[in-house]
Each structure stands twice: as C-alpha cells, then as structure tokens.
Batch of 2 targets.
Target 1
Amino acid sequence: MYQRIVIVGRLGRDPEMRFTPAGQAVTSFSVATDYVHNDASGKSVKETVWFRVSAWGKLAETCNNFLSKGKLVLVEGRLTADSKTGGPRIWTGQDGTPKANYEISAQSVKFLSAKTEGAGAGEEEADMTVTDDGIPF
C-alpha cells in the first residue's frame, strides 16, 4: 500500500519547533491552499483549505530556520488521519461552527518564495527541496 499527498500554498503563521522527550526536533506549520472556480452563475469563487504540516528531524530544523508566515511552499508527504475517526481532525470553533483539520507528515518541503523579503517580479526564486533525511537537492 502507498499514499502520497502534494500541496502548494502559503504559510499561515511562522513555524513552531519543539522537541520530543527523546530529543527529536518537530516543526509544525499551517499551509493554506486556494482553489478558484466559477459557480453556476459564472461568479468567481475562491475556496481555501488549510493543512497542518509536521516536519521531523533535520527537515524540521531546516523548515524552522528558513520558513516564515506568507512564504510559498510545496509540501510532499503522507496524510495523517485522526486515530479515533480515521478521517480529518474535527473540532468546534470559537464561533460554534464545526471545523476540520487535515494533517500532513512532511517527507519533503520545497521553498518556492523569493530569496529576499522584498523581491519583486522577475527576481530569482529560491528553489531548494529538503527531504526528511536532511539532504537538500
């Protein structure tokens, strides 16, 4: 059996790194993906889906050092299901509406945002892929 998910989106907040009791680094960050389509009346509709991403080991350290809110990334990994339901994690938001959270265990992260914060159109983009073994290629 095999499972793989690939998403491209922007970080919703700065990454947060922590360590397991065994000392392994874990970095968590959220990625928003957008899908734009036209509804039945021809009006443009934008749908945003959020993913929580966890990176481990050297990949966690690299993501924590180079990513920040708003950066564009490509994440490749494994979809992690809620152990109780087998689906996305579901909770009730502060406004009382049900919410769902899709979680990905990252195996590689490709940094797609410009190298400098103020990079304009046409400037060189970072094109670095880091895998869970910590080797960028």
Note: Helices lie at 57-66.
Target 2
Amino acid sequence: MKERDDSKPLSGIIQLDDVYWGGERRGGKRGRGSVNKVPFVAAVSLNEEGHPIAMNMNVVKGFRLTEISRWAKQHLQPRSLPGSTL
C-alpha cells in the first residue's frame, strides 16, 4: 500500500505530523537531538467525512521550512487543505 500511495500526491484535506523514529542509546543525547533518531513526515488524506483515504510517510532531512516545502511540493497536490493536527 505504501508504495502505491507514495506514487501519487495526496490531495484534499491533509493531516500531517513530524515524527522522530528511534530510541535513546545508553549514554547518548536524549530527545530531538539524539543522533540515532530519524526524522520523517506522516501525512493522511481525508474525505469530506474525515475518513482516511490515502497515506504517505517519508524520511526527511529535518524539519526546517526548506525541507518541508520540498517534501510538500513532491507529495501534496496544489490547493490541498490543512486538516486538524494528528
């Protein structure tokens, strides 16, 4: 499903969240700055009733505006609408 959904941009009402995947290593830095955490974006396209119809999860280089803008241009159709946060 992910490969199919990744091949077409999401449209309509979009909910998305930024996420770090990974855990703490003993003796390492904790939290968002930990070197073993991988940043990625999770997004869901909803129909008018609020039911999910497609999803997209991608690893990104970070959560700066330039990186999220690049991701959005590649994975969201123009004129998509923001939904509530996940």
Note: Residues 65-75 form the longest helix (11 residues).
